[in-house]
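Long-time lurker, first post. I've been practising inverse folding by hand and with some scripts of my own, and I keep getting stuck on stretches where the structure tokens seem ambiguous. Below is the full token string for one chain I'm working on. Before anyone asks, I'm not after the true native sequence, just a reasonable design that respects the backbone. If someone could post their per-position residues I'd love to compare against what I wrote down in my notebook.
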């Protein structure tokens, strides 16, 4: 079986991808409304930056293209940030050449918030000089709004190195150079499913082919150095989430249960593994530490993109799969020692 390991290098952020469909009328930036992970992970980031005047700046649930305001000059002071602030992370931009890693934005920008295929409203990303560098290679803006939507906190999205549980990140989209963006529909109709027994059997078979053996401890709470080769059965394999499209493709998060050693290894079968099933038997392993966020057509090419939160190898990040999951682009970052 073909295996694709989404390896993360030593750079704070990485771009991996290629040309997307040529039928893309809109230049659009996809980003994320997220907790300030540097503030959560660093004692140095608890001092808020000083408010500074800067220059630089309702979507509807319809399939009609919606115009989103582009950066404009706003000569007003930006609200002072707090240690619990939330940020807008501009991540991926769709150009005529394809999806690329977005360059840092240094102007105020208006975004539409998308969750579960619905536009929640708008939020402003305000540029503000920071005392400490932005954690994300693509830059970050301070999220400003009367009431930002709250999502359920979960350790699924907290990251491998984060000591605190974070909210689920929210996908945000904006236009680029004044071009309209389409409503983020999901033309491939990706949805969460409860897989039938025959599909679970195929999932288990793929998992066993990828992980023929594993290690575990004999007693609960033992150190990982006590782990020895251990057998497992299909009952030990847990399907955490299975997505299916109208084309019959599937994206499946699986892991082994009942790890008895003290600390669960981040890169082994006891952490979530992502598999892409093109059809009943043809599958691709996409890596570990992946948690589904959103599916939507962000560039208007008639195909859904899939976005995952990623945490592995000492780095966190976001991954977007496109072109029927044949290509991807990734933003990843490390937490500096502070």
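-- Answer (accepted) --
I ran through it position by position. Result:
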């Amino acid at each position: 079986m073909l295996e694709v390991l989404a390896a993360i290098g030593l750079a704070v952020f990485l771009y991996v991808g290629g040309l997307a469909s040529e039928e893309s009328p809109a230049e659009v930036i996809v980003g994320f409304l997220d907790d300030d992970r540097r503030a959560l992970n660093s004692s140095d980031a608890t001092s808020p930056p000083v408010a500074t005047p800067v220059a630089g700046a309702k979507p509807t649930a319809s399939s009609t293209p919606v115009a989103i305001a582009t950066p404009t000059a706003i000569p007003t002071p930006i609200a002072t940030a707090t240690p619990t602030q939330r940020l807008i992370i501009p991540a991926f931009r769709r150009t005529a050449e394809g999806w690329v890693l977005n360059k840092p934005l240094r102007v105020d920008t208006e975004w539409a918030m998308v969750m579960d295929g619905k536009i929640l409203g708008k939020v402003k990303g305000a540029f503000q000089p920071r005392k400490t560098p932005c954690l994300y290679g693509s830059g970050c803006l301070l999220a400003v709004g009367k009431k930002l939507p709250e999502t359920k906190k979960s350790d699924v999205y907290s990251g491998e190195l984060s000591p605190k549980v974070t909210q689920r990140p929210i996908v945000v989209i904006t236009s680029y150079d004044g071009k309209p963006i389409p409503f983020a529909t999901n033309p491939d109709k990706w949805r969460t499913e409860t897989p039938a027994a025959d599909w679970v059997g195929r999932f288990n078979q793929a998992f066993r082919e990828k992980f023929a053996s594993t290690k575990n401890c004999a007693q609960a709470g033992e150190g990982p150095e006590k782990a020895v080769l251990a057998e497992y059965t299909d009952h030990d394999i847990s399907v955490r989430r299975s997505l299916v499209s109208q084309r019959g493709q599937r994206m499946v998060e699986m892991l082994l249960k009942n790890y008895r050693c003290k600390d669960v290894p981040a890169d082994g079968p006891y952490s979530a593994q992502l598999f892409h099933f093109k059809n009943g038997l043809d599958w691709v392993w996409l890596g570990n530490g992946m948690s589904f966020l959103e599916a939507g057509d962000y560039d208007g090419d008639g195909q859904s993109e899939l976005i995952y939160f990623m945490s592995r190898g000492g780095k966190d990040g976001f991954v977007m799969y496109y072109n029927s999951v044949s290509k991807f682009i990734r933003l990843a970052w490390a937490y500096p020692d502070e």
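A couple of notes from the structure itself: The chain has two domains: 28-183, 191-296. Residues 8 and 313 are 7 Å apart (CA to CA). Happy to go over any region you disagree with.
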